[in-house]
Amino acid sequence: MKLVLVRHGQSELNLRNVFTGWLDPELSALGVKEAHAAGEALKAEGILFDTVHTSVLTRAIQTTYYTLNSLEQLYLPVHKHWRLNERHYGALQGLNKAETAAIHGDEQVHIWRRSYDVRPPKATGNTFDRRYEDLDIDHLLAGESLKDTLIRTMPYWEDHIAADLKEGKNVLIVAHGNSLRSLTKYLENISDEAIPDLEIATGEPIVYDVNDHLHITNKKILVKKTFE
Ligand SMILES: O=C(O)[C@@H](CO)OP(=O)(O)O
């Protein structure tokens, strides 16, 4: 089976270098191009998907449909779930990354962005909407480490994505930098020490071949062309 991970195209907040997390920007003009290009690259690979999973955030949903459009598989079922959302960035959400580094230092910002189990500072105020009304908001307001993100992503992996693969389906997942870093940590058995070095580019499909035991037998990154 094929398992493909795509990080959404550049968002308006990526463009402005802002901590995003569960904030809900749209794709930038470049992000739209990246999403279409991801679909074209997957089409060139000749992959026929059976099902698609994405988050409930606009940038991932827009990427899903632009990618499927260029892939000419817009007819596929698309399943959306908050468990595939970006890592919740707590009080950092909405802050500019460079300005935050100027205040707290590059090292602290790197720890917040890339460490495995350090949480961002706790957010105050409730910015959640009806998408999240069944969730434990107090927990989420604290903000998530990558480890927290992995823990909340895993039930969706087990119940839906792994279940699809076990049925022999080819699966496309369109999600976010850190929700995909957490999933990749699990899939590739990356250590806590090595995970800070893993970066996932926007709009660049990662194509895995997966066997019946759900072990990865091959990995190929469809390197994106430059638009700017
Ligand atoms: O802002 C965010 O939510 C993420 C992804 O864009 O950023 P970072 O690379 O800092 O984890």
Automatic annotation (TrEMBL):
One of the Pfam families matching this protein, by short name:
His_Phos_1
Under the heading InterPro entries, the entry gives: His_Pase_superF_clade-1 (IPR013078), His_PPase_superfam (IPR029033), PG/BPGM_mutase_AS (IPR001345), Phosphogly_mut1 (IPR005952)
Q: Residues that bind substrate, according to the entry?
A: 7-14, 20-21, 59, 86-89, 97, 113-114, 177-178
Spell out the SUPFAM superfamilies in the cross-references: Phosphoglycerate mutase-like (SSF53254)
Instruction: Quickly give the catalysed reaction.
Output: (2R)-2-phosphoglycerate = (2R)-3-phosphoglycerate
Q: Where is this site: Transition state stabilizer?
A: 176
GO biological process per UniProt: gluconeogenesis; glycolytic process
Which keywords annotate this record?
A: Gluconeogenesis, Glycolysis, Isomerase
The molecular function terms of the Gene Ontology recorded here are: phosphoglycerate mutase activity
- Asked whether the UniProt record includes NADP among its keywords, one would answer no
Pathway entry: Carbohydrate degradation; glycolysis; pyruvate from D-glyceraldehyde 3-phosphate: step 3/5
Q: What class of enzyme is it?
A: isomerase
Catalytic machinery residues: 8, 86
Task: List the PROSITE patterns.
Answer: PG_MUTASE
Which EC number(s) are documented for this chain? 5.4.2.11
Q: Does the keyword Nucleus apply?
A: no
Q: Which protein family is it in?
A: Belongs to the phosphoglycerate mutase family. BPG-dependent PGAM subfamily.
Q: Which NCBIfam families match?
A: pgm_1
As for what it does, the entry says: Catalyzes the interconversion of 2-phosphoglycerate and 3-phosphoglycerate.
Q: What is this protein called?
A: 2,3-bisphosphoglycerate-dependent phosphoglycerate mutase
